[in-house]
Amino acid sequence: MNIFSQFFIFILLLTSSLFPQGYKLIWSDEFVGTALDQKSWTFETGNHNGWGNGESEYYTNRVQNCAVQNGILTINAVKESYSGYNYTSARIKTQGNVSVKYGKIEAKIKLPFGQGIWPAFWMLGDNINVLGWPKCGEIDIMEMIGGQGRNKTVYGSAHWGGDYSNSFSLSSGIFADNFHIFDITWDQTKIVWHVDGITYNTLNISPSGLSAFQNSFFIILNLAVGGNWPGYPDNSTVFPQTMQLDYVRVYQDTTIFSNSGEKNTEHSKYFLLGQNYPNPFNPSTTINYSLAKEGAVKITIYNTIGSKVTVLVDEFKPAGNYSVQFNGDNITSGIYLYRLESGVYNSTKKLILMK
User: Fold this and answer.
1) Where does residue 99 rank: exposed (0-12), middle (13-18), buried (19+ CB within 10 A)?
2) Where are the alpha helices (DSSP H) in 188-279?
3) One of 106, 138, 262, 341 is an active-site residue; which one?
4) Closest CA to 30 of 72, 65, 63
5) In this structure, which topology does domain 3-19+258-353 adopt according to CATH?
6) Parallel, antiparallel, or unpaired: how do β-strands 42-43 and 91-93 relate?
7) Which end of the chain is more exposed for a tag (fewer CB within 10 A), N or C?
8) Other beta carbons less than 10 A from residue 5's beta carbon
9) Residue of 55, 57, 106, 143 marked catalytic
């Protein structure tokens, strides 16, 4: 075996070790700054005949109802007269901005309480505008219907034309006392619900009738007031009520990626990062990539221990084919990785620099 064969085997082993099996963070909102990140979220406003649930609130985009401060997103339900309704609140979604197919989706939330109060962290299928509800699929990562004896219990559910649900209750206290972590893990065969790492619900999505859950979804956060399920506020309900979020995070399971770091099917719908085989003795090379949809794009060069070397692209781009030049004149010879991130999608490939 010659020295170049040994060198390339070493490269293969080294880069494989950089992507161990397990969940890897691919998108998050940590709610930094002083306003909602509208590259990720959009507001849904109005009442829309109770959103199909008999809800009593009017959703607004005002800071009185949705605010970011000190690393926390707060959704406020307020008792007030507004546009013909007696309550206001907020409902935000990532539709058109962030899509998720499989992985771990979690949020750290401190919930409100009280009769008629209905907070939710949930998802709808991206194809809702084509298929409508419930054929698009719905995944309720967390819902709570407030009221006497109910402020300690949350529900994890799925709807697709059929319905599936289970609940989790705290052994002491209520969910308004502290922050808790609510998540699902989701792959081609099942959806599993957790509270603070405790599994309490599992749905087998292998049957053909549940094919809605083999598609991509967007995320929704809202705090409803009243509705057919929780009932309506009464004299015991205290206002305002707040739903506070420390973060929302999406992780991808690296075991569903190929050796190149690129997911075999879903990624090709959204972007393609070209494999680059530069002359290893030439410190300059061109990296090509394609976007099937507009979005924020970032291309970063890393060394083999995961430290960032430089950022080549970090901007919003329309769909199209692009290239960017990388010049390694000022870095040492070795193995480097270049990574493209766009929304929840990412791809990582390697290049070799020998000078």
Assistant:
1) buried
2) 266-270
3) 138
4) 72
5) Immunoglobulin-like (2.60.40)
6) antiparallel
7) N
8) 9
9) 143
Tokens 């792959």 map to which residue? 187
Clarify whether 315 is annotated catalytic. no
Please state the domain extents for the chain.
Answer: 3-19+258-353, 23-255
Active site residue 143: yes
pLDDT per residue as tens, the chain (355 positions):
443 333 333 333 333 333 333 678 888 999 988 999 999 999 999 999 999 999 999 999 999 999 999 999 999 999 999 999 999 999 999 999 999 999 999 999 999 999 999 999 999 999 999 999 999 999 999 999 999 999 999 999 999 999 999 999 999 999 999 999 999 999 999 999 999 999 999 999 999 999 999 999 999 999 999 999 999 999 999 999 999 999 999 988 765 433 333 343 343 344 455 545 445 556 777 888 887 777 788 888 887 666 788 889 988 888 788 888 888 888 887 778 888 887 666 677 777 776 6
Options 3.40.50.300, 2.60.120.200, 1.10.287.70, 2.60.40.3580; CATH for 23-255 is: 2.60.120.200
